[in-house]
Protein: DYW domain-containing protein
Organism: Linum tenue
Amino acid sequence: MDIHLTTGNALINMYAKLQSLAESEWGESDRRKVFDGMSERTVDSLFAGQLSKENKDAQAISANTVLRRFVDIFPQLGSCFDSRSRIGSRVDSCVKKGDGKRWAEARHIYFSAILPIFAQYVDVAKGKEIHGYVIRYSFEKDMYVSSSLINMYSRCSRVEDSIRVFKVTPQRDIISWNSVIAGCVQNSMFDKGLRLFRQMLRDNVILGSVSFSSIMPACAHLTTLNLGKQLHGYILRCGFDDNVFISSSLVDMYAKCGHIRIARWIFDGIKGRDMVSWTAMIMGCDLHGYAQDSISLFEQMKLEGIRPNHVALAAILTACSHASMIDEGRRYFDQMTEEYGIRLGVHKNVDLAEKVVTKIFEIDLENTDDQSHPQHDEINDAIRELLEKMEQAGYVDDTSEVPHNVDDEQKKYLLYGHSERRAIAFGIMSTPAGTTIRVIKNIRVCVDCHTVIKFISEIVVRDNSRFHHFRDGECSCGDYW
DNA sequence: TTAGGGTTAG
């Protein structure tokens, strides 16, 4: 019988999805047969099954193929994909020429499918042209199109634009929320991401697994262990703990929040660990000074047939560097280029260096001592008391890290003001004996404070570089510092 | 019927 339009489209879609399955016996020819048997076809017939996520993941169809087909249907869009000319004027001119009927066929579906390609290639100029078109033809209220736009802008580091799109979307579903929250978190706007997450909870939105894997990195980066634990409980109640995205993000969160053993326990329980899971664990071990574990994990990962990417290589090279393992480091460096074909990047970026320097000079460098803490004087007394005991135990101050141009006595005084030792003194005086004190610092601990902490106690300090487990006058970083 | 969101970094 003649294949009816929507039935035919549905069949094509089915064959396309079957084709994307591993070792599928279905192929292009099955789709073709249905397509050829249809007396009436539309744009949908051409695209059925082609733009689905399953197909993209399986790479059954490349981004370029999608674009080529898209341009076949809408030749006016060609300029948007392969040249610098503006799409907007072309759209208008082809509508004027009476070609508007074809554009009317361009339903929102294609735009929500095409935008992720610009997100992937980080091409905000082309993404914006599509956005203009979306507005002109009133597709912007569609949740699919809007979440594609949110994602495109945030992948291009334009979070403000993402949030703007989110705010003007009249109806929001879980994917709209996840898109904007993930956008904030991926662009290091962790507080904003958490605020939106809480607002989503207040709005009684039912969370999905993606909601958790999107927000968890915020807890990891902010070292907010309590919040991370609450989310972990939530995850267990939802039964999402077998999701590899979520378990990898939990490994990372617990490692960054100081619980390396819990991180390892979660990692060991992951079924179907992928490269990201391994890399998160490798970095976690390194963060805690267990470089040898990082190396054995890396080797084990390779044995399991998982090919490391540039992030995994960065992780293992960092581990070698922290443990002063020069031979291993060189071996991995050679493997990186020879076996894995990874080239060096970043490096010698003068433009970036200039931007950073400009920012640094905008900061008031003289303004470092903040004395506003209500127990400022008590903390001073506690530090003085600790110092006396430390000096009896053999502590000698090291003022080499004090950059100010003052005499040695002044420098010694400046060291008293360092936030890490003040935090420890405050922790000791305000908690019962035996309480775990967690100190989180946003810059690297100073070398003298590092010595001081070794004298004070069995203590764990996390600075911007790593965890320092101080015990019996030794530190887990092996004084690599 | 076709379409949108997620984990790892020096």
Observations:
- The radius of gyration of chain A is 28 Å.
- Residues 87-105 of chain A form the longest helix (19 residues).
- Chain A has 26 helices and four strands.
- The beta strands of chain A are 438-440, 459-462, 467-471, 474-475.
